[in-house]
Amino acid sequence: MEALYKHKSGYTIMPAALSEMNTDSHKLKHVVYDLLGPYDYIIIDSAVGINDEVEAAVACSDSVIIVTNPDIPSITNAALAKKLAIKKKKQLLGIVLNKHTGAKHELSDMEVMKFLEMPVISVIPEHGKVREATALGKPVLEHKPRNKSSIALKNLAHEIIGEESPTTSFY
Description:
171 residues; alpha/beta; three-stranded parallel sheet; two-stranded antiparallel ribbon; 7 helices; 42% helix
């Protein structure tokens, strides 16, 4: 089992694949809780598609947010994830469109909502600073906190916890 790391932002991070936890999906929720303790929110970032890791993540979750890119293959995977969440009787909170550029070849927010029959709760714009932060091994929120992607991520966090997003000024 990997160690827990306290990030300077205050978050506790457990960098491990769910499949490495040597437990079945029914016990995983308790394993995660035992390791992390009583947090208000635990975010599990799982793989794309439907595999054992995704099934385990959904099984141990109280609710699900589907993060997808605005293209046909990604939306198809998102539909499978939605189907799995429904099968596991999980609350679906909505869709996050990631890496959004607004290009003509991308599906629009409305097309994604119609196809998945779920609300789009956030759109995270594609930005070179995200890739730059990744290359530096930093969260974009730390690397460029006033970047459009960072602001969208902060707004999403407020949405998830039911708080109004603060007004951001660039001046």
